[in-house]
Amino acid sequence: MTQVNRLKDGKIDRTQTLNFTFDGKSYQGHGGDTLASALLANNVRLMGRSFKYHRPRGPLTAGSEEPNALVELRSGARQEPNTRATTAELFEGLSANSQNRWPSLKFDAMAINDRFSNFLTAGFYYKTFMWPAAFWEKVYEPIIRKAAGLGSLSMQADPDEYDKGFRHCDLLIIGAGPSGIMAALTAGRSGAQVIIADEDFAFGGRLNSETFAINDEAADIWVQASIAELSALPNVRLMTRTTVIGAFDHGIYGAVERVSDHLIQPDSGKPRQVLWRIYAAKTILAAGATERPIAFENNDRPGIMLASAIRSYANRWAATPAQRIAIFTNNDDGHRTATDLYAAGVKIAAVIDTRADAPSSLDYEVLQGAQVTDTKGRLGLSFAEVELADGSMRTIECNAMGVSGGWNPNVHLTCHQRGRPTWDEGLAAFVPGGILPPGMSVTGAALGHLSTHGALETGVKAAKAALGLKGRTAKLPSAEDAPVTQTPFWYVEGCSRAWLDQQNDVTVKDVKLSHQEGFRSVEHLKRYTTLGMATDQGKTSNLGGLAIMAELAGKSIPEVGTTIFRPPYTPTAIGVMAGRIRGMDFHPTRLTPSHYWAKERGAVFVEVGNWLRAQWFPIEGETHWRQSVDREVAATRASVGVCDCTTLGKIDVQGTDAAAFLNKVYCNGFTKLAVGKVRYGLMLREDGIAMDDGTAARLDEDHFVVTTTTANAGKVYQHMEFVRQCLYPDLDVQLISTTESWAQYAVAGPNSRALLQKVVDADYDITNEGFPFMACANITVCGGLRARLFRISFSGELAFEVAVPARYGDALMRKLMVEGEEFNVTPYGTEALGVMRIEKGHAAGNELNGTTTALNLGMGRMVSKVKDSIGSKLSEREGLNEPDALKMIGIKPIDGNDKVTAGGHLMNKDGPVDAAHDQGYVTSAAFSPSLNSMIGLGFLKNGDERLGEKMRLVSPVTDLNVDVEIVSAHFIDPEGGRQRA
Amino acid sequence: MIINHPLLGPRDSAEFVYLGDASLIERPDPAAETALADFVDYAYMRENPAGSLRELWFHEAGDRSWLVVTRNTMTHEISDVQMARDVARKIGCSK
């Protein structure tokens, strides 16, 4: 039994036979089929189970508005849930599975929900899972999670790649139906840069599904000729399989191109999908219209579809859902389906038209003034109950039914800038209105011009207007221009379990209940009943719900209004939003010039900002990071260590007002700093809180080099430019970031000078007399290589930082290792750096944490009173200068084996341990190899006057409660003798 | 969004970093008698209009200019873009 429902003709490629499986069973289809059309051709109507009641469902539509026929496409890592069978292109080897059923699609145990439907009405979740609160996590949520959602994820990483791209055009045309094509021809012939995009894999729009003639021959001839003409124009770009998902600000549109979704897997080097950002000077929305259903009792059985969808399957895909079909309509368009099906040899059971004056037919029976009141059939439609005009009932045998309630213009993209559509009485539908996104115009069915002639005519007009084209319009192709009137007919009187929203199982009864319970605004209705939510966003259901709401409220539909239309137009994969920005490519990875040297040494790296920095350098025999770090600290303090500090932000400040400028951004003074000297600088935010710290080295009267912390480099630069451009625009000063231009190394320890003397050229005196603590100079190293030398110390030891142009960084590091062999030179990483700065009591990011002031940091007196600087005024605020303000202190456990952890809080030795009696907290902690115990830095109320006090350090989170002593933050060499040696 | 940079022409807003209300240019006189109160207002008080707002944007991925962009917060329509330096000079900022 293969393809028993395949008709003659159609636009499929019968020379191509494609094998595929659905729920493990093998079928065949043809090139040009969708999964849905191929299944229908194989007499498969049942494609899924509904969300709440697990009712059997088949496709309602033949396009992206599909609520029911959602499947899991492919398997393994490429498994893709909630894929619409109506848009999934068939390919050889396609495998799909139905969703939301167990154990099988034909027998679904959860269908029991349907029997309990009285308990599962609108607001079910809100009413049921209210109490007790403790049940939420353990009982309700797992139940809901299991029952909710349709498809399942593979739980494996997506193996495919997604890209992003940028395109620009004079005119973007959204939709390649008759109107879009006509607009593209008009614009393309004028020479304008045009992009025309359509979500379908074939251009032509509705013409692909109709038997209309254009210029008195098959419309397809005009479509193919137009595509050929457009393809030959170099200024026109045709994008198939491309959905414009959103209209964003200033003429920017998002579009997803499904490059490889129609293939079993992407061709080598090709992405699966591309997210285009299209910059369009003007836009024409030619998105067409979507047919709307009529609600009646049990209108959701497989086989009951939109009449236009059945027509599409028959005319385009040569497939029919059944051999005996009834039509239920309130307008003339429904009759087109009957006519086309009849011509294709399908038996028309009857055309049931709600209008008493409906046109009759010689070919089949038309029941005028009749309505469908109920249907029967277990896993698909078998019979329809029809109430005739005279009130009598008739049972009609049919295995499919086409329902037509009229057409709704696809206004979605006109509303993405929060515009609202307006109500058209003649169409009984919303049409574009109010304020459209700037530069957008609408044509064809999307505008409410539902005839082919109207589509062509508005397409030309809009293109001419958008591009300001003058001159005579070429003769329009001739096409049908049937007048279209639509009268409202939303649901059959007396129905209750009549589905409005098949995706969310919302019935007419649910909308009535929602209204009865007081949820009367459309936005409330949507959230209470879930009408219009999920993957289809109510494209076929919203208006029916609004109409019933309006009727109950005694208002008109426009008075009730619509919910807000938001992007994306159709479901969009998170993968394409991310593009290549995933995993390690989520942000750039920055490597220092000596990275590969560090890697050769077996360094363990840590991410700091975007940088990879060596954290420690394990050597043979070391099995724990602490062994490496303790060794690095001890070796540096005993002889000499080298640390890569290239990642610190470096900002070059030049100009006659450079010192005056630094006086503004640092709270301490810089004008008196002598050339050849370095000074520590503390930068405040305007609110008086510390922003960042670093050093400023004066290389010349008008030249400073400023350092920032690694993580804040960008932010500090931005702040300095703000001060320069926005506050003091006439200062003669220029800034540039030179972080990447210089490789910089800290050489620290008692032998650092001896080591550097082997590297620094002999012309330069770096003895303590010639180059004292806090000196800086432009020098040369290694026989003439320009370099900068700074005598600054983060470790507290005699130390230097030497900088060379970045391309020499690797060579300098290797040179230092070779020349340092006699001193047992030891490279150290960020952990040892951190331990040594805690031992020395230097504040870092943990202390400059966005809540601390200069006073808290023990630098209150640095804030100059003789000059104004950013943050100096608000530093004076009373609240920041309370007598018991937090002060930075050191913490030492009384029992040297006890732990000290950052985040722990300080409590008085006696007294309650609670937040109300909190005395301070620990910001940094480390094991100090020099003191052979853990130590910490932190902030304590009035801390500078409490040195020697015994306190408790508690952390309820980690069950820490130890006795500690408050000490000076300077654990090592508090007098600073070493760094001045 | 597209910001029409006075020197570089139309640029995508993704190239910029946003700071906020351009009133930050109007830093109070620290020598004034009411300086402390003035600075509290300057640091913390912002208008939050549903409509036209002058804002500071930094062209971080470009020429590192600070711009004053007049943007309608309801529609995102940008009606004016100026170099922040020029705006600052107009209100008397100098050295």
Structure description:
The complex is a heterodimer of chains A (981) and B (95). Chain A contains 22 helices and 49 strands. In chain A, helix 5 (178-189) packs parallel to helix 6. Chain A has eight domains: 13-112, Ubiquitin-like (UB roll); 119-147, no CATH class; 162-289 and 409-467, FAD/NAD(P)-binding domain; 295-404, 3-Layer(bba) Sandwich (FAD/NAD(P)-binding domain), CATH 3.50.50; 490-560, Arc Repressor Mutant, subunit A; 595-647 and 741-837, 2-Layer Sandwich (Gyrase A, domain 2), CATH 3.30.1360.120; 649-737, Aminomethyltransferase beta-barrel domains (Alpha-Beta Plaits, 2-Layer Sandwich), CATH 3.30.70; 882-981, Aminomethyltransferase beta-barrel domains (Elongation Factor Tu (Ef-tu), domain 3). Chain A is an alpha+beta fold. The longest helix of chain A has 16 residues, at 452-467. In chain A, the strands form 13 sheets. In chain A, strands 8, 9, 12, 13, 14, 15 and 28 form a seven-stranded mixed beta sheet that branches. A six-stranded mixed beta sheet of chain A has the order 40-41-42-39-33-43. Chain B has helices spanning 35-44, 84-90; strands at 2-5, 9-12, 17-21, 52-58, 66-72, 78-83. The longest helix of chain B has 10 residues, at 35-44. The mean pLDDT of chain B is 96. In chain B, the strands form two sheets. In chain B, strands 3-4-5-6 form a four-stranded antiparallel beta sheet. Chain B has a two-stranded antiparallel ribbon with strand order 1-2. Chain B has two helices and six strands; from the N terminus they run βββαβββα. Classes of the chains: A alpha+beta (981), B alpha+beta (95). At the A-B interface, helix 18 and helix 22 of A face helix 1 and helix 2 of B.
CATH class of chain B: Alpha Beta
Number of structural domains of chain A = 8
Which fold name fills CATH's third level, the topology of the largest domain in chain A? FAD/NAD(P)-binding domain
Strand order of the largest sheet of chain B: 3-4-5-6
**Main sheet: strands, sense, barrel of chain B:** 4 strands, antiparallel
User: Which regions of chain A contain 5 or more consecutive residues with pLDDT less than 50?
Assistant: none
Structural class of chain A: alpha+beta
As for the CATH topology of chain B, it is Folate-binding fold
Oligomer: heterodimer
Quote the average pLDDT of chain B.
Answer: 96
Number of strands of chain A: 49
- Residue share in helices of chain B? 10-25%
Q: Quick check: average pLDDT of chain A?
A: 94
Q: What's the CATH superfamily of the largest domain in chain A, by name? A: FAD/NAD(P)-binding domain
Instruction: State the end-to-end CA separation of chain B.
Output: 34 Å
Query: How would you classify the helix and strand content of chain B by structural class?
Result: alpha+beta
